[in-house]
Amino acid sequence: MKNRIFVGGGGPGYGEKQYLALDYANRHGLIAGATGTGKTVTLQILAEGFSAAGVPVFMSDVKGDLSGLAVAGRETHKLHTPFMERNAKIGFDDFTYADFPVTFWDLFGRQGHPVRATVAEMGPLLLARLLELSEAQEGVLNIAFRLADEDGLPLLDLNDLRAMLIWIGENRKDLTLRYGNISTASIGAIQRRLLVIENQGGAKFFGEPALDLADLMRTAADGRGQVNILAADQLMQSPRLYATFLLWLLSELFEELPEVGDPDKPRLVFFFDEAHLLFDDAPKALVDKVEQVARLIRSKGVGVFFITQSPDDIPEDILGQLGNRVQHALRAFTARDRKALRLAAETYRENPDFDIEQAIREVGVGEAVTSMLQKKGVPGIAQRTLIRPPSSQLGPITPAERGGVMGASDLGPKYADLLDRQSAFEMLKARAEKAAREAEEAERLEEEAEAAEREYKAGRRYSGTRVTRSTSKPQRRGASFGEAMTKMVVKELTGTTGRRLVRGILGGLFKGR
Q: Could you tell me what percent of the chain has a pLDDT over 90?
């Protein structure tokens, strides 16, 4: 049947064949299990199934193994014989080796097309999470976003945000009357955190051209859905950046996509690997927002699958929304592990033929306890399942093969080069330079007036023109602003690159404006 994806089947001692119904795939899902139990293969075969059904997917490649989706499996592979034996055992008669249409992405632009977003699109809530800011520091960040919006100053990259923070610091006495206390300590702390993110490579993420979500939702010429793979092996060294990026992408999908109700198949399926990073030490306000997105984004036709080691890593309110489940083996070495195992078993619909808790402990590599949504969204009875083998290559492709896929992509020219456009940095710099020129002109006029007065008193004429002493000295308009901005903005930031025009401030769920 074309409206479902074959996940796996059974044999002696196993349950019925398991299918993921496409019309319930936007009800979200969970892939869980200890390291080395087969989560990556399950992720790979689900991506294959969605692509074959014409559904684009987005997934992060944490270990580098998922790049094999771009190349067909081979009969010469060492696991070919075990694959054929399993296919015969589970009744997978239609199995063939095949490659899939893949687009590679990379926040650092090394192993895929560059992925960028503007600071304005990221918004203060997610940015505060990324920078690990305190409540007071987050307040200052919100002021920066508010002032940038009111003053028409596009915040595109980290230099724009730095310039905005400098301006706030130099004008904090006046701003305090409107927004409350603004301490230089808070501004300094934010600046230091920006430096840390920049050193981790995060500066390459902020800027333009920003990612066009339509480029993630494409289908190939043969109708198969595009498999978007984010290179995350290096990105995982900055786990906050990894989690914040995926959450930003999820929020952008929520904001931009129109309502479609319950479609026959999803418009996009989003796989969130290492999902525990999203919730580790996350403030309640952020967890509440994630819960809200998970609850509402299904009406946009987007399915979200969380991949993690234990269901215990997912907050209960979110876990309850994950209807399609593949539970690989869990190890129970500690009291906490045993509790997590018991709680995981309790979330499944009971099967009288076996003990679910014991099965989760005993299933081998490539096996799982599964439960898929059935008619009217009812959870299916838990089944012990042998996961089907992948049609694409198991394991990573070579750098040359990756380069060939990237070279053949028509998205390369679109994202390869940074755009250099007017933004907050240039605008504040121009204001500072103008204020500095006005201050210098005021000083020059004042010096000329004083020189003329001295000559007048000495009985000499000044430059052939009679000089009348002014009753007041010229005002040094904007002198403090000019000095501050000239010294701190022009000198510190001159020569930096990547000023871009903001693509659009959506002001939605995560941006807090």
A: 54
Longest CA–CA separation in the chain, Å: 118
Q: Mean of the per-residue pLDDT values for the chain?
A: 86
**CB within 8 Å of 337: residues ≥ 6 apart:** 330, 331
In angstroms, how far is the first alpha carbon of the chain from the final one? 46
Strands (E), 35-77: 57-61
What φ, ψ does residue 493 adopt, rounded to 5°? -110, -5
Is the link from the previous residue into 209 a cis peptide, with omega within 30 of 0? yes
Least confident of 83-97, 154-168, 434-448, 454-468: 454-468
Per DSSP, the residues of 381-430 read: BPEEEEEPPPSB-SSPPPHHHHHHHHHH-TTHHHHSS------HHHHHHH
Residue 144 to residue 441: CA distance in whole angstroms: 31
For residue 492, pLDDT beyond 90: no
Distance CA 53, CA 303 (A): 14
Task: Tell me which H or E stretch contains 324.
Answer: strand 324-327
- At 3, give phi and psi (nearest 5°): -95, 20
Instruction: Compute CA 100 distance to the chain's CA centroid, rounded to the nearest angstrom.
Output: 24
User: With bands split at pLDDT 50, 70 and 90, how would you rate the model's confidence at 323?
Assistant: very high
**Cβ pair 266, 22 in contact under 8 A:** yes
pLDDT of residue 286: 79
Q: Residues 271, 58: contact at Cβ < 8 Å?
A: yes
